Amino acid sequence: MTSRTTSLGVAALAGAAVLLLAGCGGTSGDGSQASSGTTSVASSATTSAAGRAEGGATAAPGDAEPGGPAPTRADGGSPAPTAAEPPASPVATSQPAADSYWDPCTLPESDITAAGLNAATKERIPDPNHPAWKMCRWQAADQTYSVVIAASDRTIEDLLEPGTYQDLRRTEFYRRQVVQYRSVQDTHKLGCYIGTPATFGSIVFTVRNTRIQTDVGDPCADANHLGAALFRSLPA
């Protein structure tokens, strides 16, 4: 969402396509660049465990398409403890209202087309475990990648659960905090995540390489292109 050092940079979209971050992967490093409405960057790479990515709806980005913002542990985590007896009175738990999240499927078709996506491929992705979350998928106009944009109550700290991600990059774009990372399970580097905070939690772009030759192209470069084109259309 092989190791080489990359440089990061951001510029506003004003007559030219720009990238939020330049490249993906690589060893950890720190750099900064600041100007009006552009970037200050601190880069780092983290160690391994598991991640979640786009595919049908939820799988690791290494070999399946990402469909939600939540990476998962490789070992599936520990099973929930079983209570000896049910409580006498069930405790009511509040679920976020569906209208409390921004809906990515409402992005204007003109913005989607300008970002290089095929607006006709828009597909809403339900998550039965989190029915209030909003997720929408598009295919690239040239059919080289797909993207899922998800709005959920997960914070950036939730997304970056220790041991689940790698190739972490941090920057700012139009005064928004931005993180870029991959799942540790993404051994073929087919997926890339770009996340940014929102008032309800976070918005995450999950890009998957769908090229016939999967060793061609860089999903993080595709994710940066989308971010540069669409971030100004995102809610606060």
Describe the structure.
This protein is mainly β and 236 residues long. It is 9% helix and 25% strand. It has an eight-stranded antiparallel sheet. The protein is built from three helices and eight strands.
Measured as a percent range, the helix fraction is under 10%
Described by the principal axes of the CA atoms, the overall outline is globular
How many H/I helices? 3
Point out poorly predicted stretches. Answer: 1-94
Strand order of the largest sheet: 1-5-6-7-8-4-3-2
Q: Structural class per helix/strand content?
A: mainly beta
Rg measurement, Å: 18 Å
Share in β-strands: 25-35%
Biggest sheet details: 8 strands, antiparallel
Termini separation comes to 21 Å
The average pLDDT score comes to: 71
H/E element sequence: EHEEEHEEEEH
| Tally of strands | 8
SSE topology:
Layout: E1 42-43, H1 109-114, E2 117-124, E3 134-140, E4 145-152, H2 156-159, E5 165-173, E6 176-183, E7 191-198, E8 201-209, H3 219-230
Provide key terms for this protein.
mainly beta, eight-stranded antiparallel sheet, 236 residues
